[in-house]
Design brief:
Shape: globular
Largest sheet: 6 strands, mixed
CATH superfamily: 4'-phosphopantetheinyl transferase domain
Radius of gyration: 18 Å
Distance between the termini: 51 Å
Number of domains: 1
Order of helices and strands: EEEEHHHEEEEEHHHEHEEE
CATH architecture: Alpha-Beta Complex
Strand content: 25-35%
Helix content: 25-40%
CATH class: Alpha Beta
């Protein structure tokens, strides 16, 4: 029987500048997270490769997009995901079969890696680890009513912090990526009541009551946030206190 309420602890680290390197093909260590970051404008040369990696269902989804930019983003996100996982697993990426959890989170049955994908209008992030995790990427170039949206999805304390921040929209997006990464790590993915997730302190103690979230959430999540250049923010959430995060730039 799933309890009505459950205690949850969320540990958050202050944003850091993302130091990106080049991935040499090694698997992540047991308490390590790998994050592959790519700018869409640098992936054009891989369009043919990525399309050949998509399965029939992914090609069908790709064809349904009305706008070329949306098609391009889907193509590179899912094609690159297959290519990266194939490299990690020494497995033909075309033959990878994704299964989905109760709320749609994809996973690979029988393989030792967990992964998560996030994209924004001009970039994408793929996180890989040996434990369950979630990633969310946002661009500061997006238009958002951070004050109005904040009243619906942020705690009073978080709203106050946004109002006092030098760059309110950027602080809003820092907190937003943390919340989204936690939900994706749990497998819930989408939840209306984001106010129950307080993520502005180093240690946040709270109780959750959302039925699906209670059923799937770990007792604690550990969250790290990075700034990538002037425009992008990325957060990783994990039920494991990972000791190292390695960020890699993908491109020509």
């Amino acid at each position: 029987m799933v309890p009505d309420r459950q205690q949850l602890t969320i540990y958050c680290q202050a944003p850091k500048v993302a130091p990106t390197g080049t991935w040499e093909g090694a698997l992540p260590a047991m308490n390590e997270v790998h994050v592959h970051l790519a700018d869409l404008h640098e992936l054009g040369a891989f369009a043919e490769r990525h399309y050949t990696l998509l399965d029939a269902q992914e090609r069908e989804r790709h064809a349904r997009f009305r706008f070329a930019k949306d098609q391009e983003r889907f193509l590179h996100a899912h094609g690159l995901l297959r290519w990266i996982l194939g490299q990690y697993l020494d497995h033909d990426p075309v033959l990878l079969h994704f299964e989905r959890g109760a709320h749609g989170k994809p996973f690979l049955k029988g393989f030792p890696l967990h992964f998560n994908l996030s994209d924004t209008k001009d970039a994408l992030a793929i996180a890989v680890a040996r434990h369950e995790l979630g990633v969310d990427l946002e661009t500061c170039a997006r238009t958002v009513d951070h004050v109005g949206v904040g009243t619906h999805y942020f705690t009073p304390q978080e709203q106050a912090g946004i109002a006092q921040a030098t760059d309110g929209k950027r602080h809003f997006l820092e907190l937003w990526t943390r919340k989204e990464a936690i939900l994706k790590a749990s497998g819930v993915g989408i939840m209306d009541d984001l106010k129950i997730l307080r993520v502005d302190q180093a240690r946040n103690e709270l109780f959750i009551g959302h039925e699906a979230f209670v059923a799937l959430a770990a007792p604690a999540y550990h969250v790290q946030t990075w700034t990538r250049g002037p425009q992008h923010l990325v957060s990783i959430a994990s039920s494991v206190a990972f000791e190292q995060a390695s960020l890699f730039q993908v491109g020509p």
